[in-house]
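Narrative of accomplishments. A recurring question from our advisory board has been how the design workflow behaves on a single, concrete structure rather than in aggregate. To address it, we present the structure tokens for one chain from the evaluation set, followed by the sequence designed for it. No filtering or post-editing was applied between the two.
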């Protein structure tokens, strides 16, 4: 099995290097699609976090770099909710551009439980204990999918109700399409390729990433195009 990586977003000194990127402009939250969908992409410039609302509750997926809590709060408010309605904070992985505002978010959302993959748990500093999750678990209705390789405990999340895959850094948005994980920041590319193949077996219409713009419309087929089983 091989993975096509011809279109790849290379990010400047992010991921496990822990170095920051200077981004000009104001981070913003934006509707992911027209029609009032109950989720928001929090565009932080170099990375994205996500908020999904359901039945008066919200889950925050990833927390971005340090100082991102205000932008996440704006996204929560855009869904008609407040920090007190955030019951879940789900981390795709332990890289600092994805967990940098974890303490801020958990302190602002006192009722929220944090979730992380077991393989990344020791690498995350949190103001209160995190619950470890893996295949077969759910977080506010999101199916947890173990997608190691980028990091040992990397997770993706599938919302079957919204037909939405939150891929974290197991995939990357590239040139309006989908690419595999960046090998410069991935611990084990052979394992990461297997995780892409695992995601390609799922069905979803939209896929969103830690880095890159969402891809909407038959997105699972676009992921399948990355996998060469021959």
């Amino acid at each position: 099995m091989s993975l096509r990586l011809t279109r790849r977003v290379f990010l400047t000194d992010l991921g496990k290097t822990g170095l920051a990127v200077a981004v000009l402009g104001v981070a913003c939250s934006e509707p992911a699609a027209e029609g009032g969908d109950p989720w928001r992409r929090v565009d932080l410039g170099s990375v994205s976090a996500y908020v999904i609302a359901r039945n008066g509750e919200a889950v925050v997926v990833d927390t971005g770099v340090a100082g991102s809590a205000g932008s996440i709060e704006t996204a929560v408010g855009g869904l008609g909710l407040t920090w007190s309605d955030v019951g879940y904070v789900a981390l795709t992985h332990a890289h600092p551009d994805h967990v940098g505002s974890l303490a801020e978010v958990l302190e602002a959302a006192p009722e929220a439980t944090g979730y992380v993959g077991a393989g990344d748990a020791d690498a995350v500093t949190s103001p209160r204990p995190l619950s470890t999750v893996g295949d077969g678990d759910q977080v506010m209705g999101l199916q947890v999918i173990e997608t190691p390789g980028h990091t040992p405990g990397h997770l993706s999340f599938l919302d079957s109700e919204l037909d939405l895959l939150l891929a974290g850094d197991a995939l990357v948005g590239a040139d309006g399409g989908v690419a595999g994980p960046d090998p410069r920041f991935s611990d084990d590319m052979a394992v990461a390729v297997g995780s892409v193949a695992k995601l390609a077996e799922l069905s979803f219409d939209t896929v969103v990433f830690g880095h890159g713009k969402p891809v909407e419309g038959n997105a699972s087929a676009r992921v399948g195009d990355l996998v060469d089983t021959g």
